[in-house]
Amino acid sequence: xxxxxVDVISLSMSFRRTTPLYEDPIxxxxxxxxxxxxxxxxxxxxxxxxxxxxxxxxxxxxTVGATTIDRQFSGVxxxxxxxxxxxxxxxxxxxxxxxxxxxxxxxxxxxxxxxNVTKKVVVCEGADESSVxxxxxxxxxxxxxxxxxxxxxxxxxxxxxxxxxxxxNPKDSAAIRKYVKTxxxxxxxxxxxxxxxxIKPAPTYAxxxxxxxxxxxxxxxxxxxxxxxxxxxxxxxPNVSAATLQGKSFFSNFTLLSGTSMACPHAAGLAAxxxxxxxxxxxxxxxxxxxxxxxxxxxxxxxxxxGASPIAIGSGEINPNKAMDPGLVYDAGRGDYVKFLxxxxxxxxxxxxxxxxxxxxxxxxxxxxxxxxxxxxxxLDSEQSSGVWRFQRTVTNVGDDGPTTYTAKLTKMKGFSxxxxxxxxxxxxxxxxxxxxxxxxxxxxxxxxxxxGFLTWVDDQEKxx
Length: 465
Description:
- With 465 residues, the protein is α/β, with parallel strands linked by helices.
- It has helices at 25-35, 133-140, 170-182, 260-277, 283-292, 310-313, 320-323, 334-342, 348-355, 358-362; strands spanning 8-11, 39-43, 62-67, 71-79, 84-88, 96-105, 121-124, 145-148, 165-167, 187-197, 225-228, 232-235, 243-245, 248-250, 254-257, 328-329, 388-397, 404-410, 416-421, 424-427, 433-442, 455-459.
- It has a seven-stranded mixed β-sheet with strand order 5-4-10-6-7-8-9, sandwiched between helices. The protein has a four-stranded parallel β-sheet with strand order 1-2-3-11. The protein has a four-stranded antiparallel β-sheet with strand order 16-17-21-19.
- Helix 4 (260-277) packs across helix 5 (283-292).
- The longest helix is centred in the middle third of the chain and has 18 residues, at 260-277.
- It is elongated and about 80 Å long.
């Protein structure tokens, strides 16, 4: 791809998270791509929600996590009393199941738990997000269908619905549970193959998406951004089964897939769009634009960060329109990354495996882990009551050509004081650079394992934030 002269490379693959940079083919190859002005967008991995599971965390790679979308593939449940509920389902069989009796089962773990369920829809407790295995159990027991009740909100990604089934949210689960337990002859009808959009809240952090910090490069906050990665309609090999139903395989040129491998191409596509609009921008400038303009609110106006932090969703979900005109960018190039490598205390052979130039190693003088990056991260002990971290950054004005002033706005962080110097940056022309420093000071021991905030530069016309 480098030899072909591409502008963007999308990599939905990774190696073990503990693989050192100098042994990671993706990190080494991405460094070579960066030297040629090629942006590499790579998947963060699917080992969430645990922290420190992230892959592809090199600072010269755009690391992309995954979010949900505002679309629901449904199984509509209509009870015998007329009450109707919209559950989640990817059942590919017949479209409707009409007026069948309900059978309640506290457990659908095995067919031994299910007796006399023929021509009945089984109500199963405790559905698991990672699978809908209960549908296989019900099918084995000759049940006509299943309602999977939950106690927590889940995003169903499994596609192997082996019988007509719908997964209900906790509120609807409670209503259905009450109906089936109190009615003398409870019945239900099911309707499939209906799609609803505008589902709220969305986007949310996809719980499978790997979280940072990154092994080996923890001084860089990763992932960088998140993008849609749940139940994405994707091209698929027509020679590989796209779905199964009761032992029968179904094939298609497209199927629904989930993972950071689906999110990564979204970000790569935006990078290509930005490169087309701004051909003179470096890879770092492009993903800076994506990071500083990313959405941090869902479609209800609440933070996506509810239940997730920057080690899960980075700067937020990419916003193509805003990224086209970010105002300021945090740029970096080969020299900056070489200084970063110098600070990792690599051997000559390890350094050369990445940079492929031993003379750079000879010129290393301490190096610098404080890369010119559009994010900041620090680590401290939970009982630590003092400490100061200082960061230096350079921003480039890519907005309007003419006098412009940007003012720093900071959110509060519990237990910390944050200061920016100077508070105002004034530019006289486009592409002019300005320096600022950010100081983070501990005021008292942390009560929460992760504390975060935001620095926003707002221009005097509030056109760019």
